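Technical annex B. To support the medicinal chemistry partners, we prepared a structural model of the target in complex with zinc ion, based solely on the information shown next.
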Amino acid sequence: MRPASRGSHAAPRRLRAPSVARAAGRHAGAPGGDTTAGVSALLRAVPNPSRRVVVTSVVFWATAGGLFSGHQVATHQQAVAAQAHRHAVVVEQAAIASDDARTLDLLADATRRQQSAQILAAHRVSMFDTAGRAQKVVLAASTLTTGTVDELADPQLPAALPPDLAGLDEALARVRVALAAQDDVTARAVVGGMEQQVLAAAQAHASTAADRVAGDLAVVPGDRNATAVGDLVARVQQAAATTDVIGAAQAAVSADGAATAVAQAASVERARVASSAAAARNGVDRGAWGGNVNGRIPASALRSPAFDSKVLLREDAARALDRLNAAFRAKFGRNIAVGDSYRSLAAQFSTKEQRPTLAAAPGTSNHGWGLAVDLTGGIDDAASAQHTWMDAHAAEFGWVNPDWAKSERFEPWHWEFVG
Ligand SMILES: [Zn+2]
C-alpha cells in the first residue's frame, strides 16, 4: 500500500462532541445528521462487504444513541457497542495488515463516535436512575403525608407538605432544573438529600407509632396489631439502611395504621373494664331504691341536709350527712363544703364528657341514686387535716371514701353513703 495515501484524503472530520439533549432523543430527526454522512463515507471507503457490515454496525451504534431514550435501550446499546467494538478490532487488524490507511482513519473516527456514545449512554443511564430516585422520593413523601399506599397513582408531592417533609418541593424543582441541564452530578446530590429527609421522616413516623402503642400493650398484649407494629418498625429501619424510600414510607404508614388499631382495641378494652368495674361498684341493683331509675329520681323523693339546701340525697343519706356535718363542724368550726350530690342522667352524661376517665358510666353512678357527694374545702385533698379526719370518722355516720377512690381512680373528694 502507499503510506503517503494516509494524508491524501480529506482529514476525518473531528467528531463534534454530541449534544446530549439531541442524543437523548428529545428532538426527533435531529440525531444522526452528521453520522449519516459518516456512514456513507465509511461505506465508500471500505471495499470489503463483510467489513462494511462491521463498520456500519459501529457507526450505527454511534447514531442510534441519538434515536432512542430509555434505560433499557441505553443498556442494550451498551451491549451492542461492546460487540461492535470487538468486530471493529478485527477490521482494524485487517486494515493494519493491508496498510489500508483510509479505513484506519475512518475506523478511528467511528471509534471516537462509539466512545462518545458510550459515555453518553452511561450518562443517560445515570440520569434515568437519578430521575427514578426522585420519583420514588415523591411517591414516598406522598405515602407518608396521605397515609395511603398507592404505587399506581401518578406520584405527586402533596400540595401542603408536613414539617418533616418541608423543602422537598424546592429540592425536586432543583433536580428537574439540573436534569434538564444534563447536570446529573448536581441532580444526584440533591436527590440524595431528599432521600435522607424522607427516610428520617419515615423513621420518625415509625418511632411515634411505637411510642403510641407502648402504653396499650399492657392492656391488649395479645392483639395481633401490637406485634405488627414492632415488625413494621424494624422493616422501616431495614428499608432505611438500603435507602429504600418507598419501602420505608409504606412500612411507616402501616405501622401507623397498626398503632391506631391497637389504640382502638385498648380503648375498647379499657372501656369494657371500666364499665364492668363501675357496674360492680355502683351497680344499678346495689344502689337502687324506691323503684327509681338511676338519674331519674323525682325531686319529691330527694331531701336536702339542713346545713345545705342545694344538696339533694336520699332521705337517710341526707340525715346521716347532717350528723356527720355536726361532728365536722365541732372539729373545724365550719360546715362540710359539698360541690355535687344527686346527679341526673343528663348531668352524668355531661360529667362523663368533661371527665371521661374519672366519671362512672352514665346510668351507673351512685350520684344517680342520691347516695354520693363530691366534697371540697380541703376534704378533696387527701393530705389535708380535713380529709384525714373524715377518713377516721365519716364511717361512723355511714359515709366512706370508697377503696376504689383511693386506688384505681384517685377521687379523694368522692364520698358515698353506705348506711
Ligand atoms: Zn363523685
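Notes passed to the chemistry partners:
The pocket of zinc ion is lined by residues 367, 372, 374, 414 (CB under 6 Å).
The chain has a mean pLDDT of 78.
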